[in-house]
Amino acid sequence: MRIRSFLRIASVVLPVFAAWALAGCAVNIDAFRDYDDPLRETVLSGEADEKILVLPIRGVIGLNNDEGLASRAPSVVQDVTAMLRKAEADTDVRALLIQVDSPGGTVVASDILYGEIMRYRQRTGVAAVTLMMTVAASGGYEASLAGDYIVAHQSTVTGSIGTVFIRPDVAGLLEKIGVGAEVTKSGRFKDSGSPLRNSTSEEREIFQGMIDDMNGRFLALVTERRGLDREALNKVADARVYTASQAKTLGLVYALGQAPEALAELRRRAGLSDDAQVVVYRRRSYADDTLYNPATASAQGSTPRIDLGFSRFLAVPRTGFYYLWAPEYGH
Fold it and tell me: One of 5, 176, 190, 245 is an active-site residue; which one?
C-alpha cells in the first residue's frame, strides 16, 4: 500500500516538477561570457558625424531575467538603461529609433523603462520615433509611447492596453495529493494571492481595485501621449489586441511602414542628413550587421544556449501585476 501511494503521489508531483524545471531549460554555457564585456558602438550605415541610435526593446520587460534556471544575461530594463547612459555621454547621438518587439512585462519594469527613456530625452533633447516589430503590446506599447511618432509594420500586433494580476494556482493539485500548508498570519489579508488556496470574493475585489488604479494610470498616459478622444479611449480600454491598420484607425499608431520609413521620419524630425550614422550598442561584433540582428546588447544570440523550446509554454509566472499580453495565462 505504501509503495502504491508513493507511486501515485510521484506520478503527479514529478510531471509538475519537470515542467517547472523545463521552464528554465534554456541553459547558458559560461565558456563565452561576452555579456560581461562593455557596450561598444557598431555603425550599421552612414558616415556623417551625427548619429541615430537604434534602441531595441525585445522580449518580456522585467527587472530580472527569467530566461532559464542558469541564465545570467541582463534584463531588458538593465540593457536599455545601460545603452541610454552610454548614449548620453555621446553628443553626436541626435536621435533615437525605439525598436519594440515585446508583449510587455511587469507593471513596475514597464513604468521604469518608459521613464528612463523619457528622462534621457528630456536631458538630451533628442528626437525619437518608435518602430513596432512583430508585437508591441501592453507594456511594449507603453515603451512605444516614448517616441513622438509610431510606425508599425503592416502585420504588427499591438494594443492590449490593460493590466492583469497573475498568480499560479496549485490548490487543486495539493488537494489531490493530500498535501496542505499551515499559515499563521497577522491579519486576515496577509496571505492574499497565495497559490496554496483559492481566493475569497473580498480578496478578488481588493485585487480588482488595485488593477483599476494601475490601469487608470496606463490609460491616462495613452491619452496624454496620443491624444485619444473619449470614444477611442473607451475602445482600447477593453484591452484587446489590434492589427496595425486597426491601431492606426484608433490613433494608437501614426503610420504603417518599415525601417526605411521610420528612419526617414526620424531624420526629418531631428534635422539630420541622409548620411547620418545609424548605430547600435553591442557587446561583440557581427559581420554584415543590421538593425534586425536579435543579439542586441545581451547574451541573446551570442552566448551558446541549449533551448529545448519548452520554456514559453511551461514557464510558471511569478505572482504579480503585469502590463502583458499573455493569452497562455488566461482561462
Answer: 190
